[in-house]
Amino acid sequence: MTQDASDDLIRRVLGEVRTIAVVGASPNPARPSFYVARFLAERGYDVIPINPGQAGGEIDGRPVYARLMDAPRPIHMVEVFRASEHLAAVVEETLALAPLPRALWTQLDVRDDAATARAEAAGLDVIVDRCPKIEIPRLGIPPRG
């Protein structure tokens, strides 16, 4: 499992993806899902907020969608801000997308080994229990051009 993702894998994923769906995005600026999504957008990533309770509205000026399959363009990475018990359902929804995303990234303390194993078996790069807002500066990953 890539649960202990190497720095090289993290660099490669963050260097190659452009569109990131943030599952569990919140309109509350105090929530990590809000400020991490904003950070990613400020770094040049195309952020798509996913939250069924906020669908049809906006989060930080971006339209919110209820489900991954509702996103208006292909998703390269799914960033998960849901509790671990919801990760299996997010993985199943991710694996139903066509084209398949390049990567699944779970936020700090979000773990379900069986679910992430399914994502890996389907060919996704999986990064677990990490935060891109921490990893990008730590690894010196430049903004997207």
UniProtKB/TrEMBL annotation:
Stretches of the chain forming a coiled coil according to its record: none
Entry-linked SUPFAM superfamilies: NAD(P)-binding Rossmann-fold domains
InterPro entries named among the record's database cross-references: CoA-bd (IPR003781), NAD(P)-bd_dom_sf (IPR036291)
Residues annotated as domain CoA-binding: 14-110
Signal sequence region: none
Listed Gene3D superfamilies: NAD(P)-binding Rossmann-like Domain
Pfam families in the cross-refs: CoA_binding_2
PANTHER family: COA-BINDING DOMAIN-CONTAINING PROTEIN, CYTOPLASMIC PROTEIN-RELATED
Name used for this protein in its record: CoA-binding protein
Lineage: Bacteria, Pseudomonadati, Pseudomonadota, Alphaproteobacteria, Hyphomicrobiales
